[in-house]
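Final report, Chapter 2: Outcomes

The project's central promise was a pipeline that accepts a single protein chain and returns its three-dimensional structure in a standardized token representation, suitable for archiving and comparison. That pipeline is now operational. To close this chapter, we reproduce one record exactly as it appears in the project archive, with the input sequence first and the structure output second.
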Amino acid sequence: MTGRRRTRSTFLPGLLTRHARKGVLSAGTAVACASFLAGCGVVPGTTGDAGDGTITVMTWAPQSTKATNKPGMPAFAHAYARWINAKGGINGRKLNVLTCNDHNDSVAAAKCARRAAKENVVAVVGSYSQYADSFFPSLEGAGIPYIGGYGATNAEFTSPLSYPVNGGQPALLAGLGSALAECGPVVLIRPDTIAGDQLPPLLDSGLKAGGHRASNDQRAAEDATEYDGQAERALRTTSTDGADQGCVVPALGDRNGTFMDSFRRAREDYPEVRTATVLGSVDQTVIDATGGASGPYEGSYITGWYPVASDPRWDGMKQVIREQAFGDNRIDPADAGVQTTWIAYTVFRQIVESLGDGEVSADTVAQALDDGLKVTTGGLTPTLRWRFQDKLAAVGFPRLVNANVTLQVVREGRLVSARKGFVDTTRTLENADVNY
């Protein structure tokens, strides 16, 4: 068995109990991120003074690291603030966006959360971090809701102060398994970590729903510089059934590209097999960089949370980019992080509008959501409503309220819809054999 095991928070078990929204902050919360911490910023021309009718929120994401980077999320948050403020704000209140770089680091993630508490933000909106175990204690101690996280960690689907807008990795893998039920042998290449241990049951739940046997679980080091041996083994396994084309599913996150380099070299000596993965590991820029129509992803099934980027339902987001961030190459409208940030701010806007002329605080924002506020996203998701114990509580995801995914395919080098509409993975996930 290769690789190593770590205790990072992604998809770890545990159900967090609700802290009082108004109370004494933990000792850790009292130590705040410095106001001018590298990577943190404020939209020019706004202030954080709640007394002037300004609403202050925060968006964070990793930037300029050697691993996962999501610079488009805080960049789009700034663009959204400029756009909404140019229209008079939300209910006449100016939106002030603070941003922070979590550096793909647990200490930095905790600093971002402590700064959010110190700055009295009313919510963290449209953010990405793999270190929920580091940032949620400070948010919960201060009663700050986490609206529209990327879905990168299990805690986002368990914390009572989390309000996710998508189904994260669980929904993506369950939906992908359903799409691959007609394949021959299926091999899952995944990290040999505690986080990786949670992936096979989710993929297998979809395969089982389609009458397919479980996948072949192939572990790999998540930080390897090549995967020649794993690629050869996967091809041997998926080539054993001459009647049905096998499918290889790399789920190595940022190392998917490294695996596909090894896979492309090795596949010349084997019968044709299909590849499949989830959005976030692969997007249009990755497909282009690996050869487009002649690359290894041609014909691949890819599950995503939302409609393809060319769908007219994204026109509102694209308008914001055109008006406020036309020359900002950090913001890609096809990036799932940017899309999630747009949806999260769409949700936040409706929350504030529901409060009318009343107080806008972390407490009132969370209370509005807990009281059953329904929000719409222009068809990009189903109508969203959060209850503490939702349908998927039995399998460890009590806050997962949107289990819809879209099925996409790479055709002639372009990522296009493979099936109209959404696929609801709720029932598939309910039957998943996930052990916590």
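Archive annotation: Confidence is low (pLDDT under 50) at residues 1-51.
This record, like all others produced under the grant, will remain available to the consortium after the project formally closes.
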